[in-house]
Amino acid sequence: MLCPLCGVRRARRGCPALGKQICAVCCGTKRLVQIQCPSDCTWLASARDHPAAAVVRRQQRDVGTLVQMMRDFNDRQSQILFLVASFLIAYEPPDFQSVIDHDVAEAAASLAATFETAARGVIYEHRPASLPAERLVTALKAVLAEAAQGASSSFDRDAAVVLRRLEEAIGEARTGDPANQRAFLELLARVIPKRDEVDKRGGPEPSRLIVP
Asked: What's the pLDDT at 207?
């Protein structure tokens, strides 16, 4: 029987998340990215205990990208970055169409321009050209507005810096993997755990950066 995900290789591994047999390659490459693996999956546990060299190298690249994006950030900027990243991982568009890196970059650019204008004392809302990016901006603005409550006036400048850096990182991710339209979003999903995963573990929330 062929793997239902790729339709090319033989299905030899039982996937508890999908309730189907899939191939080893799809299991390894789509795990926790396209497949929401349960914590008790034996293949997931084995991969975590004995990661392949390629996986370790990818983890190192992912963390390196995140560290580079956070270079010279102050505490508030770091908090804003993880707030935005957590939002992007959990974001579900109203039309159920997956957003791609280009949508996120466009949204980040327009929202950064809005914050930069506000920091100069001028209220002007910059709007992205595409509908997916505009919907993303609307949702992200609400999240940042809540975070800004009670904050000093420098919040607008800090948010603009973070969003510009996010735009820059997306461009670099797309350059490194031009065929993958969700390269950056998948990177975020690999290095930052979702809120429900943290809640299932219980106890105080640990660092949201996964270091290999």
From this structure: 40
